[in-house]
TrEMBL record:
Keywords: Cell membrane, Membrane, Transmembrane, Transmembrane helix, Transport
Chain intervals for the UniProt region annotation (Disordered): 1-22
GO biological process: transmembrane transport
Record protein name field: Carbohydrate ABC transporter membrane protein 2, CUT1 family
């Protein structure tokens, strides 16, 4: 007897093979779903004031509080009025140059002192550092009268130079604290290697440390720019000449005792937000890197 071996047909084998399910449903993790439901209302709550601000600047004045949230008709008449009624370009320029000089001055003092407290050894180092930190515990409102009298004695009252002195001296300790913490994350071996090569401390600071400190510098720039641009109390107290005032005290003058032109006010506020948005967008990558530095090593 001869037995014949039958070879299986490949097409039959393919047909008889079990089919795999191609449509698999992806299940979202419970943590992400919960975070989405929690963060979505928070984001909507944070965006709501800006949306209201923008819509109010584009609606007729008689529909600010009586009309619907989204106006039926839009008008941009409030923007030219805000531009001319309060001399917007003059005060915008005052805010811009005062803020720029303040940020530059704070960066110089904060980076130099932060590097000294982080990488150098000198007598009474910790004592001086604690004394600088104690200035952060005093509220700015409690210092208005002493600072006012001191500027008056120095002849700097009602001058933008006196306002710059207050801004830089008042903001430098906190920025120094941030830069010192950032400099401490940099390895000491870089500084030691530069010293062995014969570099001076100023050369080490400018060519070794500062290029590595860009995320920390961006963080200080954004915080300081936002704080100085929106500052109101010191500027309104020190400066008495209207032409020297920055933008925020002048915008506050648009609020009346009995009635307020809300479209004009919100139009001016919308224009004043533009520099802050531009600075943050240009430096957001470095800012995020500075805030998350050390989270992942």
């Amino acid at each position: 007897m001869t037995a014949t071996l039958e070879t299986p047909n490949p097409s039959t084998a393919v047909r008889t093979a079990p089919r795999r399910r191609t449509g698999t449903r992806r299940r979202l993790p419970f943590g992400k779903t919960f975070a989405t439901f929690v963060l979505a209302p928070i984001c909507a709550l944070m965006v709501f004031p800006f949306v209201w601000l923008l819509l109010t600047s584009l609606r007729p004045q008689n529909t600010v509080f009586s009309g619907p949230f989204f106006p039926r008709s839009f008008t941009a008449a409030a923007y030219p009025k805000a531009w001319t009624s309060i001399e917007f370009p003059l005060h915008f320029w005052n805010s811009l140059w005062i803020t720029s000089v303040t940020v530059a001055g704070v960066l110089v003092f904060a980076t130099l002192s932060g590097y000294a407290f982080a990488k150098l050894d000198f007598p009474f180092k910790n004592t001086l550092y604690l004394l600088l930190l104690t200035t952060l515990m005093m509220p700015s409102t409690a210092l208005i009268i002493p600072l006012y009298l001191q500027l008056k004695n120095l002849g700097l009252l009602d001058t933008q130079s006196g306002l710059l002195v207050l801004y830089i001296s008042g903001s430098a300790p906190f920025s120094m604290f941030l830069m010192r913490a950032f400099f401490q994350t940099l390895p000491d071996e870089l500084v030691e290697a530069a010293r062995v090569d014969g570099s001076s401390e100023l050369t080490i600071f400018l060519r070794v440390i500062l290029p590595l400190a860009r995320p920390g510098i961006a963080t200080v720039v954004i915080f300081q720019f936002l704080q100085t641009w929106n500052e109101f109390l010191m500027a309104n107290t020190v400066l008495q000449d209207t032409d020297k005032l920055p933008l925020q005290p002048v915008l506050f003058s648009l609020t009346g005792q009995y009635s307020t032109d809300w479209p004009t006010l919100t139009a001016g506020l919308t224009l004043s937000i533009i520099p802050v948005v531009v600075v943050y967008v240009r430096m957001q990558n470095q800012f995020v890197a500075g805030m998350t530095l050390g989270a992942v090593k």
